[in-house]
Amino acid sequence: MQTKNPTLTRRANVTLWIIQALLAALFIFAGAMKLVTPLDQMQGPVSLPGSFLRFIGVAELLGGLGLVLPGLFRIHRELTPLAALALTPIMLGAVVISALASPAGALVPLVVGALCATIAWTRRPRTPTLSPLAGAR
């Protein structure tokens, strides 16, 4: 399966890598903090179960690693768009919860979610498309 997008310029590829590295740092930090912070200190505007917060922490940590490690090691690069795609609904949930506290506070998770969706879309595996008339003669 080919995962390299031949239509991406070198500049676009470097830009995507920078965005992926920044998002990875953000998610690894956020996920690690959710795993090491005591549950009573993580109460936000909406009360969420502690086990759910730990689950989100693990998902963010693994998703952050999935944004950069496949490309760095050049192994299973198709996992990068999957990691970005998996982080997108987490950020949509963060938008909803942040909006309950302050509508302006939902802007940051919205932008991060949009960046995750962009990474998922631009790094998705490319497969050749067949024309419906390709086999007809």
Short description:
By secondary structure, this protein is mainly alpha-helical. The protein has helices at 10-36, 50-73, 79-101, 107-122. The protein contains 4 helices and no strands.
Alpha-carbon distance between the two ends: 28 Å
Please give the largest β-sheet.
Answer: none
Level of helix content? 55-70%
- Mean pLDDT across all amino acids: 88
Shape: elongated
What share of the residues does DSSP label as strand, in percent?
under 5%
Decide which structural class fits the backbone: mainly alpha
Helix and strand element order: HHHH
Number of DSSP strand runs: 0
Our count of helices gives 4
The radius of gyration over CA amounts to: 18 Å
Unreliable parts = none
Q: How many discrete domains? A: 1
Structure characteristics:
137 residues; mainly alpha; 0% strand; elongated
